[in-house]
Design a protein that fits this description.
Layout lengths: L1 H18 L3 E8 L6 E9 L2 E12 L2 H7 L9 E13 L9 E7 L5 E10 L4 E10 L7 E7 L5 E3 L8
Parallel strand pairs: 4-9
Antiparallel strand pairs: 1-2, 2-3, 3-4, 5-6, 6-7, 7-8
Length: 165
Amino acid sequence: MRNVWMMAMALTIGLAAGASARAEQVGEVGVDWLGNDIIIEAVGDPEVAGVTCHVAYFERGLIDRLQKGNWFEDPSNSSIACRQTGRVVIGDINLDEDGEEIFKQRRSIIWKQLVIKRVYDRKNDTLIYLAHSRQVQDGSAKMSISTVPLFSQDVTWTNGKPAEE
């Protein structure tokens, strides 16, 4: 049983490290004397060049973890803002209404992840980015949304712009 637990821990740590590879921390704001911080990261969309999302989330400090227990979990709250930061080149994106996951980061040792999904709104020619928490059970209603309008922009679609439905 101990070996199974050790393998699960190693896998979890490996996945968390891999998921963060596309995010770059650009800010850290201390919010109290307990060591709690708001972390700000820049996340590039791997299939849409020229769009950058900035995500802010709460990270608990050591003193807060000691006081409250629950060592391995951070709150689900997050905020996202996405903007055009260069020439927009759209690759092979998922056009379904369920969208496509472009980023995920562990927010607890096993059960919770911060996820960013991209959805394309054909009718309004807009990219929508949704930040939310994914949990095994007791899903969270905490979410944040940002849009990048493509109307009247110089946008290159590598596979051709999809037709309006």
